[in-house]
Every structure is written in structure tokens, then in C-alpha cells.
Specification:
With about 375 residues, this protein is an alpha+beta fold. The chain contains nine helices and 21 strands.
Amino acid sequence: MPGYNVTKIPPPAAPKPRRRALLALAIAAPSISLLGCGTSAVAQRAGLPDFADLAERVLPAVVNIAVQGETAGQVPAEFRGTPFERYFRGRRERTQGQGSGFVIDPTGFIVTNNHVVGTATRVTVALQDGTELPARVVGTDEPTDLALLRVEPRGVMIAVAWGSSNAMRVGQWVLAAGNPFGLGGSVTSGIVSARGREIGAGPFDDFLQTDAAINPGNSGGPVFNMAGEVIGISTAIYSPTGASAGIGFATPSDLARPVIEQLRRDGRVDRGWLGVSVQDMVPEEARPTRRAVVVTDVVRGGPSQRGGLRAGDIVVAVNGERTETARALVRYVAAITPGQPVRLLVQREGRTQEVTVLVGRRPPGPG
């Protein structure tokens, strides 16, 4: 759709004076307070869910995250190629941002988005009661845009449990929580609009789409099912303005949970890698009668070249399982422990043969 962009949820701008913002809202929409009267009774009569008890139970585990960092200064166009360029390149600029997160362990482990913490030099977590705690980044994973933080709480923290995103159906209710525009703990409700969304963020795209309002500052915040379990992590929005347009994307819990467990255990995520470029192949005459994957390039010195895989090979199965898309092949191999062998059934020059490749370790990076 022209003019619309799918983006990681940006950090909110510096908050304006709250009194003026709320006053303007009241003048612009005086009926809002009237429509809010008796909403619980109206919802019950209409058969709609009441989220009050759910919100009260899960909000104490939702945190606000403030980050500070430094980036290299940008060189203004008018100074490029002049003696002043060196000054701007050597200058460091302070950056600030805000996001959300949630506690998964009472001892102080907190999940958020990688793009929330980025290269921050200082991360501060604020609890719902206003308590602020310095946080340490345990580990990050750029391909899935996840990060794990650790704080040293003064007592036992309230934590929430993971739920199964695979069990969610389109049309089921969800509750999103976070720190929109830096306003503090907020909740919004909606439904699962779609599953398995690919938005061009990377090879592990598998987002839940929801119409619950998600705005700048919600990044890293949890999306709950009606049992109060985390089934998604707010990550991106589809919007012409940068604010909520009713199309938000959450990293599914069944993808996030094993990544977070690896970060907690090892501080990093190791994925299998073949060292090839691949693309989908649509069945045609003189080609496989079913969908397959074609190798378009082989990294010199990489695992596949050492194993004998060639550009132009058509991969039809991996370890005896048919593979029909490049995305499925990448994900399958990524789940294999580096150093383990993988058997690829390929078609080469009209003949079918098996190639065994020793899986390598995926290089760092988003792709």
C-alpha cells in the first residue's frame, strides 16, 4: 500500500507537558469520558470480555525501559569534503530512547527487543511502582530482534509465564501492555488478526498480527492471551504516520522462548549455517514436479562448498524431509547445532544425488 511502511517501533519523542496534552484531549473529544461510563456492564451485556482482572494481574510484571547511548556524529552535507568534516566525524552524540519489557523470572530476568537496547551504554528499568533499577544486557539476538536483561531486585519480582503462540487462533482476544509514548504502564486490547506474517525483517519472520493499539514505546512489551500468558512480543507496526493504525506485529512466543533460553544460558544464540544463497523454485517442465529450492550461490570456503554443494543444485529434501521453500530450508538448518552433518537430496544436471554438509555456525547479523 503506497505511503505505508513496516518499521520497528521507534522510540517515542520526548514527552510534552502532560497537563496540556490531557487538556487538549478533553477539549477535542469531550464525549470520551461519557462513553467510558459503565463500560464493564455494557461489555458484559454485549458478550465482550472484561480485561480488568487480567490487567491487574499482569501489569506488575510489565516494565518501562529507558536507554542512553552514544553514536557517531553525522556530517552535514555542506561540510563534507572540507577541513571541518574531521570535526563532525570525531564528534559523539548522546542518544536516548524508551521501550517496554516484561519479567520472566522473579530473580530479575527481563525480556525486550534488541532494537530497544541497541548499543546502549546505560539501561534503566522502571517498575510499575516507580522503582528504578540499573539493568545489564545478558545477551541479544539481532535476527529475531530479542534481548535479555538482568536487574538486581530488592525483593522477589512478579513474573509472567510463557504461553503457546501456536495455540492462538485468528480472532482470539489478546491484551498488549507497555510504555506507549513514555506514558508508563498501559494496556490495549484486540484480536489476533493473522498468523505467520512475513514483513521483510529477516529470514525468521513469523509474526502474529494484532489490531491492539501498539505505538512508539511499546517495543518489547508483552502480548497476553486471556489466561495471562505471554504469546507475543510487540516488535513492529504498519503505519503511514509512525503511530498505531491498527496493524501491529508481535514476535510469537514459540519462536522467542528458545532464543531467550539460549541467551540466558550462553549469552548468545548459535545457529546452523550452510553458507549458500537460495531461492524458491516453482515447478516447471524438466524441473521437480513439486516445489523445491535452488542454490543460487555458494560462499567460498563455506560449509556447503567444502561439502560439494554447487550453484544450480536443486534441493528437494533435507535429512529425508521434503523442503519446498527457501525460508523453510534456512529455518531447518538454523535449528541444527553447528558441527553436525546434514544430508541434502539434490538434483544436479538431471540426476538425483545426496550431498552431506557439515553445518557451520551462522555469522552474526540480521540476515
